Amino acid sequence: MVCITYSSKTRSVVRTYTIDKVTHSDSTDVNSHIWQCQDTTYDEGAGTGIPTPAAGLATTVKTYSNGACTPTRGTVFTTSYQGYDAYGNAVASVDAVAAAKSSLYTNNGCTLSTAPLIMSSAWSKSHYTGLQCL
Fold it and tell me: Per the count of CB atoms within 10 A, which of 94, 97, 105, 113 is most buried?
């Protein structure tokens, strides 16, 4: 995290920026074959009142089969989602099984009293699979 202070004659403003978050990870063997790759997206769907720049909250994680671990990626193997409240606390999760079979979560899974403020719009159901379900 980097903290930058801006000062003027009338006020002083402190801005906090999260930088250098990992958006792609993989393992490459000695033969240059790529294994275990995944992509992470941050701060999707930050609502009104959520401070910017981004908080660095992982909202979507996509994994790929080893055969699809190419520089341009192949078909997504699994997707999972995480949702957060206005303070950056994790309040909702959708595991890879739920994301793959989202029709099961039209009426199943747990509901939250308040929807997450920071979460991918790709998950449009009102039911989740973890965290506040406990």
Answer: 94
Distance between CA 110 and CA 113 in Å, rounded? 10
In this structure, what token pair is assigned to residue 47?
Answer: 């609502």
* 27 CB-contact burial (10 Å; exposed 0-12 / middle 13-18 / buried 19+): exposed
Tokens representing 104?
């099961």
Q: What is the pTM of this model?
A: 0.74
Task: Convert the pLDDT of each residue in 77-134 to its tens digit.
Answer: 999 999 888 888 888 888 888 888 877 777 777 788 777 888 888 887 777 776 555 4
Domain count, the chain: 1
Residue type present at position 117: L
Tokens of residue 17, six digits: 């920026």
Read off the tokens for 131.
């965290």
Give, in order, the Cα–Cα distances in Å from 65 to each of 79, 80, 88, 116, 128.
Answer: 12, 15, 31, 30, 25
Q: Which domain holds residue 75?
A: 22-134
Q: How far is the C-alpha of 25 from the C-alpha of 92, rounded, in Å?
A: 24
User: Phi/psi of residue 51, each to 5°?
Assistant: -65, 145
Pick from 79, 80, 91, 84: nearest CA to 131: 91
